[in-house]
């Protein structure tokens, strides 16, 4: 909490429960060890060895109860006298309770388990009526749709969105790239945003329990007859890919040029992708889940060639680094993501021209990141008080020409919507709309493509 300005609510406990060892290890620093030793272990040892004189239980109990009662009365009187001054800050800054130790983590742990154990998870089917609409009948060409789920990439550090540093040198020159500048995420942490964005619930209806109890977008694709795969270089798909093929690419193999000793770079997600596309027999949807810009060790997320901005913060202890060096390391992760998206598009361009496959790509990030603004770092702030940096995410589309023609997509119309306000709520319905899938769960009002389809 000291180092990163973190507030502890139930979703932060969920983050703790659902993370993996590697992610956790990055937070175990020497400073952390020192702090825990100095403020936790040493006082406990002193207490352990000190001799306590316990008075007889009867009188002692009365004494304790008396002092608790007196304290409560005193607190009540103070609250009454000062209520006017306290009421509005307490109501407007509900986040204060997430900062008050130890009630914050006691409440948070309680809240987490209450949600987790709420009811046995029975997954109800969704969109079982899904089928490929009339536009599909006119061509026998296969389709491949790649959905890249970014990690911790915030919109404002993309030069495509007006950032002063050139963090998108490749995508800036990408023909036909559609970039949306005003997109809000569903949550501020992976454990919320990823299940939410693939669910049909939308942010206001979303809860972890509801999302777990209902199939999502990838299941609807499956019902419509697609082969659906999830390739992961993050800490799993948070339940989203439970019923489809899952491939964990995050574990480094010795000598793998796309990995360091601890983890793999996102380029590994693209390995064998051309072959995978070529050998597929059905229409394919492939989700690539990036490690992206996950902090605090930003400088570990990209190979050396992408260290364009310098000097960079090389430690997880952000307090030891200047804001400039933290931002420089973060910007290098965006530069690397620029390369990843660009390379994925090249692969899809090639499949389109050489293998006759109708290809499309969608990219969005799960949430943003604080890099010291308002003295906040990382992400995961309770949504109501979360800063724009943690919620404002990039969204991009690329559609091969034959894909556009086949599904009658008017890209000029889409390009004109670039500065409109969208959110993760649009992803579910837009993905269905883009691929012309008919189902009762599709809501055209939330489909970015709906207003942008040619009549003929
Ligand atoms: Zn995330």
Automatic annotation (TrEMBL):
Transmembrane domains' residue ranges: 28-49, 61-83
Domain of life of the native organism: Bacteria
Protein's name according to its UniProt entry: Phosphatidylethanolamine:Kdo2-lipid A phosphoethanolamine transferase
One MF term in the entry's GO annotations: phosphotransferase activity, phosphate group as acceptor
UniProt keyword list: Cell inner membrane, Cell membrane, Membrane, Transferase, Transmembrane, Transmembrane helix
Membrane topology recorded in Swiss-Prot or TrEMBL: Multi-pass membrane protein
Compartment(s): Cell inner membrane
Domain Phosphoethanolamine transferase N-terminal positions: 1-116
Pfam families: EptA_B_N, Sulfatase
Species for this entry: Massilia yuzhufengensis
InterPro entries: Alkaline_phosphatase_core_sf, EptA-like_N, PEA_transf_C, PEA_transferase, Sulfatase_N
Chief place where the protein resides: membrane
GO biological process entries: lipopolysaccharide core region biosynthetic process
A Gene Ontology cellular-component term: plasma membrane
